[in-house]
């Protein structure tokens, strides 16, 4: 109970509810006993009153409660019964008579069942399912008996020492405390909804694995993971192991290297170890070197050169004479590490150029890897505007691009990202064709390359990528544009293009911590736009016999309603409710009606009243169509055809063309 503010408030609310309930029951029974002269009249009256209260309570629960929950939310309906209870006691205070007693009876028997009980169940349902049994046991075994004990003792003392007026005063006091507890429940309910949605949507919390001891179960799990057959799984475990337990990671990964024949996987495992540095790696790698195959030995030498091991400082000249491309590449890298302005480096540059111009793709990939590694080498003193490159590099790249496959093109793009745009600006029109490829990784690399400042062709390619199907490509394109034009240059993009492009723009503005007032204006604007799309959708839905074009437009408009609504919520994520809004968005995107209902309920708690009210109306499909803006279906379709959304615009224009 100590860990849940909602549960604490709920238990306190139930305790004071029981006391208030029995005080009201006692007072109205006193009135009834004073108002009737014999038992027969009282029994007849009780029968009629009970029947009426039961019927009215049932009708309220069936016809009104659900609507009130939709209109006002759980938090407001939760306050109805405390208010009516206080009003009943206030009526008894001013007029201790039969009408006031009937009002109290109606409150106790009808309103409690209609409003309080459903809300209680809804609120407690967001608590963990594993705790539901313990909660109900606590209610039945502790809270209710304790409240009944206090109620009984209190009534006995009050009727013995005080008059009914004093009892009414006590009842109003307990009703106020009961209302305060319900108000505290409302405050705690939002946090519980967010926790509930996180639990259902599998939002994981960060865990500090680094505090574990080396002999812990975690270390054994990571060790077993490194030996998984799937290379990607093994690499993920190896990376985590290196970060958490670097000393143990060297031994474990070295053991896996001895079992690895695939040279690509071998290279990747060594790359995972490389950040550990010479102190960790030099001795184990030198011990592994004599027994390694030639290609594996070349990979080991590359890492030893990278960590600047003095034991192999004299090897580059010999490695450059090898007939194995991988060994030659290690020699080039070693020559650079030892001093790239020496005579040896001139020989290494010639070998490097041969690798780039070779017929074998594997040699080309090694040449590109050399450029990435050399220009990313720790302690590199070369100025960024003058990167280390082999002779005729642009011509070699163009030749490789035109004749290479997707793997080679992706490697070229990854390499060009490290170079100033001036070095390859003439290649941008050719490289831009990568944006038409199916592989999102290739498109992502192309966008990263095209972000050079001052090059019109690259800037046009970035604008083309703004509406890419893959979210990472869109985000990177927006980021590259933002670096050139700033946040002010991004703002016009929110008035055109598809919702997914606008969402990427809002993401960049949030990332750069744009002014909160502007983002709230964006949220308000998008909420109104979502409302307009909802109006259009409601009009299109009324078509009696829609054709295929109209059905397609109906689907597209419905998608736009949800997408624009998500942008409105996304723009609010700078507020103090940012985490809650993020979870609400995730809940609304699920197909689970229960989770969507919880997300809508959490939306009612947002402090942004204008946006909240508009979006809730859209979600509940309770939008009134503006007949001045949309007098008929044709006007709605024309409105869609004028939107700066190419896909929506095309669908609407096709519908208009079919109708004419």
Write a concise keyword list for the protein shown above.
Growth Hormone, Chain: A; mainly alpha
Largest sheet: none
Global mean pLDDT? 81
Estimated radius of gyration: 36 Å
Q: Helix coverage percent of residues? A: over 70%
- As residue ranges, the low-confidence spans are 204-213, 378-383
CATH top level of one domain is Mainly Alpha
Number of helices: 30
**What is the second-level CATH architecture of one domain?**
Up-down Bundle
User: What general outline do the C-alpha atoms trace?
Assistant: elongated
Number of strand elements:
0
**Structure class:** mainly alpha
SSE string, helices as H and strands as E: HHHHHHHHHHHHHHHHHHHHHHHHHHHHHH
How far apart lie the N and C ends? 68 Å
């Amino acid at each position: 109970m100590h860990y849940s503010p909602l549960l604490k408030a709920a238990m306190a609310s139930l305790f004071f509810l029981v006391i208030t309930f029995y005080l009201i029951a006692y007072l109205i029974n006193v009135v009834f006993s004073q108002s009737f002269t014999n038992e027969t009249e009282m029994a007849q009256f009780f029968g009629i009153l009970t029947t009426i209260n039961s019927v009215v309570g049932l009708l309220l629960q069936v016809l009104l409660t659900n609507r009130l929950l939709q209109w006002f939310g759980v938090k407001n309906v939760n306050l109805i019964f405390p208010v009516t209870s206080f009003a009943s006691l206030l009526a008894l205070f001013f007029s201790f008579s039969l009408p006031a007693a009937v009002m109290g009876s109606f409150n106790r028997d009808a309103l409690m069942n209609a409003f309080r009980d459903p809300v209680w169940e809804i609120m407690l349902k967001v608590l963990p399912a594993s705790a539901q049994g313990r909660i109900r046991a606590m209610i039945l075994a502790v809270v209710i008996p304790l409240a009944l004990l206090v109620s009984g003792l209190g009534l006995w003392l009050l009727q013995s020492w005080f008059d009914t007026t004093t009892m009414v005063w006590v009842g109003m006091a307990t009703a106020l405390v009961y209302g305060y507890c319900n108000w505290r429940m409302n405050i705690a309910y939002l946090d519980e909804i967010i926790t509930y949605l996180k639990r259902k949507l599998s939002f994981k919390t960060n865990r500090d694995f680094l505090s574990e001891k080396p002999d812990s179960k975690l270390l054994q799990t990571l060790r077993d993971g490194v030996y998984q057959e799937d290379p990607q799984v093994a690499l993920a475990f190896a990376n985590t192991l290196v970060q958490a337990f670097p000393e143990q990671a060297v031994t474990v990964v070295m053991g896996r290297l001895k079992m690895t024949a695939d040279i690509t996987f071998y290279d990747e495992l060594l790359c995972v170890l490389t950040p550990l540095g010479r102190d960790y790696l030099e001795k184990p790698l030198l011990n592994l070197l004599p027994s390694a195959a030639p290609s594996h030995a070349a990979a080991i030498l590359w890492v030893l050169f990278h960590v600047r091991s003095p034991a192999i400082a004299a090897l580059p000249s010999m490695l450059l004479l090898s007939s194995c491309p991988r060994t030659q590449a290690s020699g080039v890298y070693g020559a650079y590490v030892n001093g790239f302005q020496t005579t040896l480096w001139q020989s290494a540059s010639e070998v490097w150029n041969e690798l780039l111009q070779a017929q074998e793709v594997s040699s080309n990939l090694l040449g590109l890897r050399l450029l990435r590694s050399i220009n990313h080498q720790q302690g590199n003193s070369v100025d960024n505007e003058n990167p280390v490159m082999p002779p005729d590099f642009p011509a070699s790249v163009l030749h490789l691009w035109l004749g290479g496959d997707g793997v080679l093109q992706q490697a070229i793009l990854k390499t060009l990202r490290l170079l100033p745009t001036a070095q390859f600006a003439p290649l941008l029109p050719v490289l831009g064709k990568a944006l038409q490829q199916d592989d999102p990784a290739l498109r992502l690399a192309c966008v990263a390359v095209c972000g050079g400042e001052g090059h019109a062709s690259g800037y046009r390619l970035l604008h083309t990528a703004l509406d890419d199907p893959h979210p990472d490509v869109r985000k990177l394109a927006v980021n590259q544009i933002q670096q050139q034009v700033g946040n002010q240059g991004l703002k016009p993009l929110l008035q055109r293009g598809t919702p997914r492009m606008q969402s990427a723009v809002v993401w960049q503005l949030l990332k750069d911590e744009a002014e909160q007032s502007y983002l709230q204006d964006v949220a308000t604007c998008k909420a109104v736009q979502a409302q307009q799309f909802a109006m259009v959708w409601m009009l299109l839905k009324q078509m009696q016999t829609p054709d295929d074009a109209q059905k397609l437009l109906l689907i597209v408009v419905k998608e736009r309603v949800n997408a624009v609504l998500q942008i409105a919520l996304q723009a609010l994520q700078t507020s103090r409710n940012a985490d809650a809004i993020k979870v609400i968005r995730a809940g609304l995107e699920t197909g689970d009606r229960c989770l969507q209902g919880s997300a809508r309920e959490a939306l009612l708690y947002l402090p942004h009243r204008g946006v909240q009210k508009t979006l809730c109306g859209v979600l509940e499909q309770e939008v009134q169509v503006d007949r001045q803006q949309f007098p008929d279906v044709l006007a709605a379709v024309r409105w869609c055809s004028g939107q700066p959304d190419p896909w929506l615009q095309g669908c609407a224009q096709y519908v208009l063309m079919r109708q004419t």
